[in-house]
């Protein structure tokens, strides 16, 4: 095991849980990020505004953390761009077809005891692990 | 107005959580998915941390008639485990494993001025639009 950081992972995860809970308690919305990203360009105007603000908040949150910790997070460079382009496309396509991503299925759906979300989460975890195995040990590209 | 402020605040807290947990770091995510190498189980702890909160809060929140500032809850009522769900999740997993980004960290990484993150977000939107025109048409 390398660079295992259980404490910051648990605390960061708890913050995500607080965010998801606030959005549900106050606005009645599930914080599924793929759905929010997609909805920015496809929902009626009033629906688009809160989504855009949530996404702007994501950027502010990350930037704020970087500022407060004086740049503790490194930004990856030099990763094969073709992997980003094709992989990004598959993330977009797959999360729409499968109605959610790590947040919508993995956190909101599981907390709602949805069998759909549990199945989806197990599926994308397994396919993500399989993909890394193939790319790293069979193809040797990353 | 109030709901918009809530959305902004929720986004900021979510972004802070992604950063603190380092889930925003795609290499950290790839180390989690790399179970046969130097496995880093941290990401499982991010999910546990989030679920420890939501498992409790959702019980109380969903007992309410309505949310505080809106007239109803927008919660999926779908229950069938069908092909699009599983195929979509599998395709998403492939993209996740290729990049180390799921949608949240990809968008939040714009706050770290990640050039790769910009490309990732554009590619995700291309996938959204492709799915809409190829599958939903």
Q: Could you outline the blueprint of secondary structure elements for this entry?
A:
The complex is a heterodimer of chains A (142) and B (137).
Chain A: H1 6-27, H2 33-39, H3 45-68, H4 81-97, H5 102-111, H6 115-139
Helix pairs in contact in A: 2-3, 5-6
Chain B: H1 2-20, H2 26-33, H3 42-61, H4 83-99, H5 103-108, H6 115-134
Can you walk through the features of this model?
Chain A has helices at residues 6-27, 33-39, 45-68, 81-97, 102-111, 115-139. Chain A is mainly alpha-helical and 142 residues long. In chain B, 66% of the residues lie in helices and 0% in strands. The model of chain B has no long low-confidence stretch (mean pLDDT 96). Classes of the chains: A mainly alpha (142), B mainly alpha (137). The interface between A and B is large, with 109 and 117 residues.
Could you give a quick summary of the protein structure above?
With 142 residues, chain A is an all-alpha fold. Chain A is 74% helix and 0% strand.
Question: What labels would you give this structure?
Answer:
heterodimer, A: 142 residues, mainly alpha, 6 helices, 74% helix, B: 137 residues
Into which percent range does the helicity of residues of chain B fall? 55-70%
Low-confidence stretches of chain A: none
Main β-sheet of chain B: number of strands, strand sense, barrel status?
none
- The separation of the N and C termini of chain A measures 19 Å
Give the CA-CA distance, first to last residue of chain B.
Answer: 35 Å
């Amino acid at each position: 095991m390398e660079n295992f950081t259980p404490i910051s992972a648990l605390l960061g995860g708890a913050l995500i849980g607080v965010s998801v809970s606030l959005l549900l308690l106050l606005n009645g919305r599930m914080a599924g990020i793929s759905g929010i990203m997609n909805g920015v360009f496809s929902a009626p105007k009033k629906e688009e505004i809160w989504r855009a603000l949530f996404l702007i908040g994501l950027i502010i949150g990350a930037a704020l953390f970087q500022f407060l910790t004086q740049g503790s997070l490194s930004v990856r460079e030099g990763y094969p761009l073709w992997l980003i382009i094709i992989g990004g496309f598959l993330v977009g396509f797959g999360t729409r077809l499968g109605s959610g991503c790590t947040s919508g299925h993995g956190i909101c759906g599981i907390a709602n005891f949805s069998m759909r979300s549990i199945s989806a989460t197990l599926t994308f975890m397994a396919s993500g692990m399989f993909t890394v195995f193939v790319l790293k040990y069979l193809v040797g590209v990353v | 107005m109030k709901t918009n402020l809530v959305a902004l605040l929720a986004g900021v807290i979510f972004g802070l959580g992604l950063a603190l947990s380092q889930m925003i770091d795609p290499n950290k995510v790839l180390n989690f998915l790399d179970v046969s190498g130097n496995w880093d189980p941290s990401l499982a702890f991010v999910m546990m941390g989030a679920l420890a909160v939501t498992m409790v809060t959702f019980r109380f929140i969903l007992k309410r008639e309505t949310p505080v500032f809106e007239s109803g809850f927008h919660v999926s009522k779908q229950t069938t485990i069908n092909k699009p769900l599983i195929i979509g999740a599998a395709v998403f997993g492939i993209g996740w494993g290729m990049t180390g980004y799921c949608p949240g960290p990809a968008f939040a990484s714009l706050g770290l001025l990640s050039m790769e993150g910009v490309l990732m977000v554009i590619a995700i939107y291309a996938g959204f639009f492709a799915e809409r025109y190829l599958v939903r048409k």
